[in-house]
């Protein structure tokens, strides 16, 4: 009986630890665009669309849309590879980070401003989103 109780307590502790780890699993530590809520869910903000109209979205399934690399954006679906920083419908797909090497730039919110970083690190020479991106094969 003690073994069963110990096993259940261990499994419960593991479940809590995994939930906490999953809630903190941002790919760029310090990305203000991702807020962890008290219930364990995430609130995710993506860069706002500019006031000027944009061209039609370049779809994520079109290889011609990513000559300078993928924009890695946290979305409500999780980490996504997008053809643009705004993550409009059709411009993103599920991330292949860690599985495939591609040119990537990370879109994050730091100190209230949207930035692009060459690596998934907030201190990695991030620049504003208006600057030319510097992607890194990763």
TrEMBL record:
Keywords: Signal. This is DUF3011 domain-containing protein. Residues 1-25 form the signal peptide. It comes from the Bacteria.
């Amino acid at each position: 009986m003690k073994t069963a109780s110990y096993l259940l307590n261990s499994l419960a502790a593991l479940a809590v630890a995994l939930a906490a780890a999953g809630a903190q699993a941002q790919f760029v530590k310090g990305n203000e665009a991702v807020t962890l809520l008290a219930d364990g869910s995430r609130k995710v903000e993506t860069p706002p669309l500019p006031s000027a109209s944009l061209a039609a979205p370049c779809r994520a399934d079109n290889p011609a849309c990513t000559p300078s690399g993928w924009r890695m954006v946290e979305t409500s679906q999780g980490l996504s590879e997008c053809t643009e920083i705004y993550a409009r419908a059709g411009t993103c797909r599920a991330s292949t980070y860690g599985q495939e090497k591609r040119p990537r730039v990370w879109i994050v919110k730091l100190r209230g401003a949207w930035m692009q970083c060459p690596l998934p690190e907030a201190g990695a020479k991030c620049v504003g989103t208006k600057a030319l991106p510097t992607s890194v094969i990763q």
